[in-house]
Structure formats: C-alpha cells, structure tokens
C-alpha cells in the first residue's frame, strides 16, 4: 500500500478500534503494527518488513499462514453451504469433524458439542458438568475448582475459574465462588525439563493440595478444570505428566469431573496430538479451539463422555435438555477448514515433523545458558520459555515497572521477530510448519536481541 | 449424495453430535434434517427437497445463501491474510469495518471492540460497563438490570441477565444477581401493530417499572440491557419505539448505561439499519453479531461511546486496561465478509427493498385473521409472528404438553417451509433478499399448514 494509505488506515485504527488486552495509551505515540500479508511462518507489514510469527498468532496457527489446501477447502465448502442453523438441522462438515475428533481424542469421549471460541467452549463444559450433577441426583455439586495461574477465557463463567489476578480480580462481584488450588511449582530445570527431584516434589505437593480439597469438599464440587501440561497465559508454566495423571486419579476417586482445557495446547503443540496423552488419561470433558481450525477462523468444541451425554437424554417433558447454543454453532466453513487441517496432519505427517522440530528446539536451549538473568529455561513440544529474573538462583523478579518483557518485544520487532512476552516471560509457541533452518534463524535473532539489551 | 452416504452421515450424527438447544431424544426415531446445499432463500436436503429458510438460519442470514460477492470477498481476503493476532497488530479489514460501523451506527458511538459471537459481545459490554464505573469513582455501581423474557446469550454472564426461565433457571447458583424489570405488555394488535391505547398503556406501565427501580437503586446499577424493539428468543415480543426512547431518557437521567443488544435485530431486520433508529436514540453500548457477517461466519462487535473508552485510557501503571480478548478477535476473513455485506447494503439498496417487502408482509397479515386460535398477530420489518392460543380474547395458552408449535414445525417441513416456533409462537424472520413472489408463496404454504392442522 502507499504511505498515504498506511497513514490513513493507522489514523482510523487509532480513531475507531479498541484492541484486546491492550492499554490503548501505549499506542498514543506508537502505531499498531499494520500487517498486510501473512504467508507460511511470516507476517509482512505495510512497509514490506518481514517478521517470524513465533507465537503462532496468539497460539492458533498450525500449518503456517495461507496454506493452499486450507484456501481450497473454504472455497469448496462455499459452493455447498455457507452457514445454516444447527438445531433441527445438520450437515456433512460438522458430522465428519465430530466423527474425526472422537477418533483422534483420548479414548472414552463420545460426543461433540460445538461453539465459537475457547471461552464459550469452557462455559459449555462448566454448564454441562453443573447440570449433569443436578440430573443424577447430586444437586449439591455446584462448585468448581481451578488452578492458581490458570486462564480459561474472558466470559464471566470462564473468568470465575481464572487464576490470573491481573485479568480477573476487577470483576470479582460478578463471578461465582470457586476453589483455587495450588499448581505444581517446579524449582529446577535441566535441558528444558524439570529435574527428577523438582518434578517429584512439585507434583507431590500439588496433588496433596487437590486431595485435601476433595477430602473436605468433593461433595460440593462438580468439576476441576485444568490446562493439562502447560498453563499458558499464566506464564507458560510446564507441568510434569505425573501431575495430570494424579489429578485424573483423584477426580475419579472423589467423583469430580476432570475438565481439560486444551484450547491452547491441543492439536500437536506439546508434541502429542492432545496434551492429555502425555499422561495417558482421558478427561470427562475436553475443550478444543485455536488450533482446531489450524488457526484460520473461530470454532470450538467441547467433547464429553457418553455418561455425561446420557444424563441429559430423556423425554422432553423431563426438562433435561441442555439449553445452550450460539447462532454459528457448527459453522460449515469452519468445520470444513478443521477437517482439512486434520487431513493435513495425516497426509503430511505433521506430528512426526513436530517431534523432529521439538527435539531441535530442545537442542537449541543451551544457547540461552550463557545469558545472565534467564531463569527456568523450559520446553515442551513446540513451546519453549524462560523468565527474565533479577536472580536466577532465588527467582527474584525485576520490578514490574521496568517492563522488561515489553522491551524485549519492541527490540525483537526490529530483528524481524514477533515475541509476545507474558510479563517478563519470553517464549516461543511455534507453528508446526517451522523448519530446522527457520528455528535456527529464530534463535539467532533472539540471542541478538538479548545481547543488545545487555543480558550477556 | 447416495442413500448409503446419507444413512452413514445420519448414523454418525446420532453417534457423535450433540446439537444445541436440543433434547436429543426427540431425534431417537427421527433424523436431523441433513442439508446438502444452501442457495438464496432455499436449503436443500440430502434427498433434494427444497425448503424456504424463513428464519434466516437462526436469524443470521441477510443476502441469501451462497451470494457470489461474499464468496469472492473471502477468496480475496485469503490471498492477503488469513488470521493474525489483534493485540499489538492490526489489519485493513478490521480497521475499515470499524470505521464503517461507526459511520452507520447511531451517532455518538466512537469505538469498536471485536469478539466472536453475541454472547461474548454481551460479556464485553457488561464488563466494560462494570469497569467503567470503577474507574470513574462510582465503585458501588456493580449490578445490572434486564427485562423479563430477555435473552442475551448462553455464557454465564449473559445468562445472568437472561429472563427466560426455561433456559436460565437451572444455572441460578452460578449467576450474578441482577434486577429483572417488567417488559412492555401489549394487549391488543391491529394490522400488525399495537393499537394506540395498548401501546400507550404498555409503555407507561413498563417505563414506570424502570423508573421505580432506578429511583431506589440506580446508585448500584451499572447498566440496563435491552433488546431494542423486539425481544426475540423470549417470544418475538415487539415493543413500541416510545418504550426504547423512554428507557434512554431514564438511563440518562439516572446515570445508568443503556446497553442495546442488537445481535438479532441489527442490520435491517426491523426495517431500519439498527433497531434503535426507530426511537431515534443512541445507546452507551451497542452489541452486534449475526447479520454483521450477513450470517456467513462468526463475528461480533461491541460499540461504545468515547466517554466509556476514555475512562480506560491511561498510563499502563494505573491498571485501567480492559483485559479481555479472544484469539480470533477481529478475524480478517470475517471482517472482510462483513465489509462486503455492508457494500451490498449500499450498492443493492437493500434497505429500500426491505421496506418494500416489509410493507408487503404487513399486507399479508389479514390472511391469518380467518384462522382460529391465532393471537397477537404482529409485525416489524422482516419479522412477523403470531401465537397459537386456546382463547385469543383472554390469551389463554394451550397446555404446553400439546407442543403445538412443534407440530407446526413438523408439518411445515412437509410443505417445504422452515418454521422454527418458539414454544407456541410461530414466526417469520425473513432474509432481506426475499422477493414479493417468494413472500406470497411462503404465506400460501403457511396457510396450508394451518389449514391441515385444523386451525381454520
């Protein structure tokens, strides 16, 4: 576009658009980055500058931008049905996608309920779990448990089970009461993984907290919601698989639904198709979005066991219907895209490639060791992170007013790299299509940024 | 598709899919209607049967299905950017759409915040209103008021301001407290409109209820949420414009945000671009979805005044950021579709056509007069409705166990007509592309259905 067009668009952006999760005054002097083209692993701004999309456009992109097969799938679907309602009516893309999701999901899940984004899919899971206990004669089970540092979305039900005070505390008077549980705390990392002692200690302590809660209160708890393996927005906190396995066991023993929010970690991001596979477990409810459509358009799904489904299945007059729905539920275009993405997973052996790149990413971690102030260097699958801390031994943080992560973000842009730190946590959340060569280039550039900011 | 394919798809549908707002046991013997093709005003099932989509696929479709211009807009956008994040980044379709929405919206709205569906856009409005009062030193304003019979979505915040007990009562323990206000009750209709006396009485009574509430409690009320002109899911309840105007006045006087949920009624459905125009008012927050993308894919927007926006605009350290966002916020594909739809509105003079068809629809209403048990025949724009009642004088309902609306639905399908009654309320919610000829055919078929079910 011309410089005049660019100026005009940025002017309108400032005049008319309120961006998500953004203090708009941060952009009083500076512009939002105007993206004109997205292709593969790259975004291009209006001046033709190229950036690595190392955060998969907010953790959604899978096969890279502009994949020709995805484009064709949309075009094909548009020839049949654009959007039709999904109550009383059904269509091929939604049916085939549901069938495929059940096929690839952890065994034991039977039904798929569609919605439009992670927040709504979380709300579906909470409401299903709540109503289930009403129907099976346990009406006292009306509460939920969640983990500190958890993030499950921004609608008020999802906020009620959110553990990041920065996002959630303001809305306290609008939230329902829920139990906040200690998450696994990992004190020491080696080669990107918790040391065995740190893992054991962190898991034991965190499971003990769950057990204590369930012993005293399982009678009133409908479900326990977790982000299996990685708490994402809370700071890319990687958990040992033993924790997820232990939670499953406790939920079963104390009759509490395990609700697995795999919105961020599903579809191969952690190295397995679903993060629950690391622990070899099946949740009672599984929540999917983001990567579901390869990151191209909104769609979400809440999967549940047949046992949960059957508690709602009765004559209409018994009033056990699950009265929930959104206009665009099961949108044919989004379902067609999701199906094509899953075909690509198979035909292009995406998970094999993910394993290769995950190993390569792990192999790059030692390059961060020589830097000062880099703590908790950790990795799982296509995800890697470290924290900028004053003291790596004690974990003492920098004063938040220094906004160190934010400065890394700004400097990285100059290096053609999109890093989107969470506070002072710097991370990669790589698309599956990343090549080894691109990975090396990304790490080179990251090191250059750290170097320039004085972390060597 | 072949009969075998159809059987297999319907088998998988029954095995794997949990449909929204559906008692799945209703489909134990009967299949969901498998739609294979959608074109213009018609849906075609797997056997090639054609149906009029008289409910615009759950109130979303605008220009008909499969509009070539919409298809082209998606294809064009896919060549530039599929999806990119919207925090720190921006792109042409989202900017141009925001600019256009502010241009056509009631005057005085300044900023656009995107999300994915009506529920999330309602949650955005509630959270913005709530946080606004925190920022301007009125922290006691933490509650919301809503109308009886209202429906604002299915996430728990939206359910908290929902007034349809069938959908909302189950979840009581998870909802925040809110004030339920009497809606206008219209006792008599003539030529599809309230009689002047009925309108005056209904409006006065309902405004008095708002006034009483505000007098006693405005100090603790952040916002009052309404569906302007038509309460849709609550039973296609049409309100006089004087009610909406009166609510605006009271909200201003008592310093309560007026939140207008135009998810269902926006974009021409009531005959004007936005329903608020009937009353000549501007709400503090305006919620849009459904018709925003011409009903093709998920997208929503919450518009607010600059005054609200400015209460959040400050140095980062003051912690006034609106921490809300969804991964697919401002999805470029959906924004491109919405822009193209608004271009069609202008170039094809859609609102002029809507006025013509609305008049023609009004002209058809007398055809329902000779039937027995048809009460409250009413109409606004492309929307018309009547209730099946035992006694049209007293309004006495049929026993709900008779499921009369449901029988109309089943019979109408045989007549090539998709009617989706709300309980015993039968209604049209016509796409803007409906022609006069199609309208007559739709009414002919509806009369045939009523005839066969013994209402003559």
UniProtKB/TrEMBL annotation, chains A, B:
Annotated signal peptide: none
UniProt keyword Transferase, yes or no: yes
One Gene Ontology term, aspect cellular component: cytoplasm
Residues annotated as binding pyridoxal 5'-phosphate: 118-119, 261, 326-327
UniProt cofactor(s): pyridoxal 5'-phosphate
Matching Gene3D superfamilies: Aspartate Aminotransferase, domain 1 (3.90.1150.10), Type I PLP-dependent aspartate aminotransferase-like (Major domain) (3.40.640.10)
Keyword Transferase: yes
Principal localisation: cytoplasm
PROSITE patterns: AA_TRANSFER_CLASS_3
Pathway(s) of this molecule: Cofactor biosynthesis; biotin biosynthesis; 7,8-diaminononanoate from 8-amino-7-oxononanoate (SAM route): step 1/1
Keywords: Aminotransferase, Biotin biosynthesis, Cytoplasm, Pyridoxal phosphate, S-adenosyl-L-methionine, Transferase
Enzyme Commission code: 2.6.1.62
Binding positions for substrate per the UniProt entry: 58, 151, 290, 325, 420
Catalysed reactions, semicolon-separated: (8S)-8-amino-7-oxononanoate + S-adenosyl-L-methionine = S-adenosyl-4-methylsulfanyl-2-oxobutanoate + (7R,8S)-7,8-diammoniononanoate
Record's subunit section: Homodimer.
Similarity comment: family membership: Belongs to the class-III pyridoxal-phosphate-dependent aminotransferase family. BioA subfamily.
Protein name per the record: Adenosylmethionine-8-amino-7-oxononanoate aminotransferase
Organism of provenance: Paenibacillus oceani
